[in-house]
Amino acid sequence: MATVQTLDKIRESLEKHLGKRILLKANKGRKQIVTKRGVLEKVYPSVFVVRIEDGRNDDSRISYSYSDLLTSNVKLRVFKNSEPEDKNLKVS
């Protein structure tokens, strides 16, 4: 079982990446994996919020709990400023 300290460490590590571009892969169950690009927007005590970049002017946001990261239901990859994006990556 995850301890409060473990979840706090995850939150603290995400706080270091606020405002950075990320690649998010979420397991929605039944072999459905959603991949999105976005910006880590906010970090709260129980959840974090990602603003999705979908090419439109819509401002869509998704929130996940830190336990989603701990259980690998959600995976994040932080882009470095100088890192080029992989154009062959399919984003849905």
Automatic annotation (TrEMBL):
GO biological process: regulation of DNA-templated transcription
A Pfam short name: VEG
PANTHER family noted in UniProt: PROTEIN VEG
This protein's name: Veg protein
Lineage, opening ranks: Bacteria, Bacillati, Bacillota, Clostridia, Peptostreptococcales
